[in-house]
Amino acid sequence: MSERVDRRKFLGLAGAMAALSATGAAAQAAGAAKTVRILGVSCSPRKGMTTSKAVQAVLDAAKAVDARIEVELVDLGGLKVAGYAKPPPEDDFTPLLAKLQDPALAALVIGSPSYYRGPSSLCRAFIERCSPLRDPKPVLAGKLLGCVAVGGTRSGGHELVIASIQAAMLCFGMIPVGGLSPATPGATLLSEKDDISKDEAGLDTARKLGARLAELALR
Ligand SMILES: Cc1cc2nc3c(=O)[nH]c(=O)nc-3n(C[C@H](O)[C@H](O)[C@H](O)COP(=O)(O)O)c2cc1C
């Protein structure tokens, strides 16, 4: 009798352990599958300067939201990215395509300096070269878009830069996201003597954009 009880207990325990380990494995698999990537692209010709720092501030804020968020910054400064041509030019854009086609990519952050109240030509070239992501298959459709603008003067066309990037990326079916709250169209920063660290209000827009992107990317 006691042997039967022990055997029953043993079988029950073994079953429970198997179920637990299966649940754990499933939870682990689900956790791994939920990893989401946010890619930042800085479109200033000056590598490592204020635009790349501002994009990095957005990415840092996104990463701080949840361990499942993975971020990466691509700084186009100093790289050769020509505008659209057919066939596509063989330049530094080519290796970027794979990152943009990654199915785990949930959001793209595009940052540009304000150049005469519009995006830099490097930013336009980057967007034009994204054409293979639109046709034949809209690879970026439904993915989130965050925009960053850095200018040397207050009201230096930041919102025009952001609106221009958003309008272009709507052609790819991307979903533009701003920061909350108060609602902002994106991150807008003032660079004074090549420094954004004193622009607390601007850095706040970067943090809010990053947080919002992360929250939505995780949904
Ligand atoms: C050609 C050119 C045009 C510019 N036009 C504007 C402008 O319209 N509005 C503005 O606020 N700043 C303007 N600036 C200043 C840059 O936006 C600012 O220096 C920015 O920080 C540059 O980004 P970076 O540090 O990443 O290079 C201009 C700078 C250049 C070189």
Protein described:
The chain has two domains: 1-33; 35-218, Rossmann fold (3-Layer(aba) Sandwich), CATH 3.40.50.360. It contains six helices and six strands, in the order αβαβαβαβαββα. The chain has helices at residues 2-33, 50-65, 96-101, 121-129, 158-170, 200-218; strands at residues 36-42, 69-75, 105-113, 144-151, 175-176, 187-190. The radius of gyration is 23 Å and the shape is globular. The model is unreliable at 1-5 and 10-31 (pLDDT under 50). Bound molecules: flavin mononucleotide.
- Major sheet details: 6 strands, parallel
In CATH terms, what is the architecture of the largest domain? 3-Layer(aba) Sandwich
Category from helices, strands and their pairing? alpha/beta
**Whole-number total of structural domains:** 2
Q: Distance N terminus to C terminus?
A: 54 Å
CATH class category name of the largest domain: Alpha Beta
Shape summary: globular
